[in-house]
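quick one, 433 residues, struct below
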Amino acid sequence: MHTWSPSVSSGIANVPWYPERASQRVPEQVFEGHETQVRCVCFHPDENKLVSGSDDGTLRVWDRATGSAEVLSGHTDWVCDVDVSRDGELVVSASDDNTVRIWDRKLGETLHVFEGHENYVISVQFSADSRRVVSGSGDETARVWSVETGELAFEPIKCHGRVYCVSYSPDGDRIASGADSIQIWNAETGSGLLSIRNSKVVSLAWTTNGTHVIGGGRGKVTIWNSHNGEQLRTWQAHSSVATIKLSLSPSGSHLVTRGWNDKTAFVFDVSTGEQVAAIQHDEDVYGIVYSPSGQFIGTGCDDGRVYLWKAPILGGPSANLSPASSFLSFLDVCTHLSVLIIPRSLMVIIQRSTATCNSAGGTATKRRSSSRPPGLSQDFHASRSARLIVSPADPQQSRGHVLQPIRGSHSTRRAEQSPKRDTSTRRCRSGNR
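---
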C-alpha cells in the first residue's frame, strides 16, 4: 500500500457563527420516491437531471422537466455518495456494501462493480477525463480505479484513519483525502505529497485554481494552502458537535454547508467566512451540492426527498473573484483599519513594506519582497499604514512547514501526528451525516 510522508501543522483564526440569520426559502422543485433518507445528490452536467443515492440502496436519476425518476438498483446497502462524469454518460456510486459501481446512465445498467475495499465506501469521484475513479473507505484506504478495466491504477493508498472524502484537484494532478488528517497525493502514482496535522475533516473541496483546500470538520470550516498546508482561515458554520458536509460554488466565491442533525443549510462568503444566506428544511439535511452553473443548490433529506433550490444571488465585488483574489481583497479591506489583528499564519502574506509617501518630499520607500503561498500572486497594497498585532497562538501550531519524506514504517512515523480515531460510530453514517 502507498503510505505517506511530509506533514504540516496548522493554526486557528476564528470567524463568528450567526445562526440567527436563518430564513425561509421556497424550493424550485421537490422530488419524491426514495423510501428513506437521501444521503447524496449530484447534478448532471447540463443540470436537466439530478442523481441521488439513498439508504434504501438505490440511485435515482431525476428528470427535472417531468419529475420522473429512473431507478438504478444493485447495491445491497446504503448508497453513501454519487458522482456523474463530465460527459454525463456515466454515474459512479459508493455503498455500505463495500463496493463501487459504475453505471451507464442512459441504459440504467451496471457496467462495473469494483470490489476490494474491506469496509464501507463513503466517497467517490470521477477524474476530469472520466478515465479513473477515486474512492475512500472505512478500511482506511483510498483507491484509484480504471473505469475501462475495473482494475486498480496502483496500490491502495493508506490514509490516516477512515477516509470520509476524496477529491481530484481541478487540473487532475493531485488527490486530496480527508480522514484524521487531510493528505494530498500524486494522482498518477499515489505517492504522498503533503499531510496537514490537526485537520480532521469529513468533507472537502478544492478551490477553483487548486491552490487551497476547504474542509468541513466538527462545526467548523477551514481553508488550507494545498502546497504547504498553511491554514488561512477557520470559522464556525454549525454547532460544535455537527460534522459538516460542504460544496463550493463553481466560481469559488461561496460555500454551502450542512451539519449533522441540522435542518438548515448555510451559504458563506469564502473570502470573509460570513454567512450570507440560509436554506431551511423540515427535516435533517444529508446530501448537498452546488449545480455546475452555480444557479442551483440540491439537497437530500431525512424525509426521502430531493430538493432543488435557487442559489442565492449575491452581489458585491467578491462574487466575481477567484478565492485567492477574494482573500487578498479581504486583507486589503482590513488595511483600512488602524489596527489589524491577524493570526501568525497570515504573516507570510503581509511580511513586506508597502510604498509609503514621504509627507515632506513625496518620495517613496522601496518595498521589501517576501515569500507568499502559491496562488496568492497579486501584490498586497495597503492604502494606508496599519499597525499589525500578531495573535498569541502557539507558533508551532500556526506556522506551516513541509517536512522532508521520512523513511520507515507507517505506524512509526505517523503515530505522533494522527489523533486517536473515534470508533464509537460506524458505516457511512459518520461520514455523511
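The longest strand covers residues 38-43.
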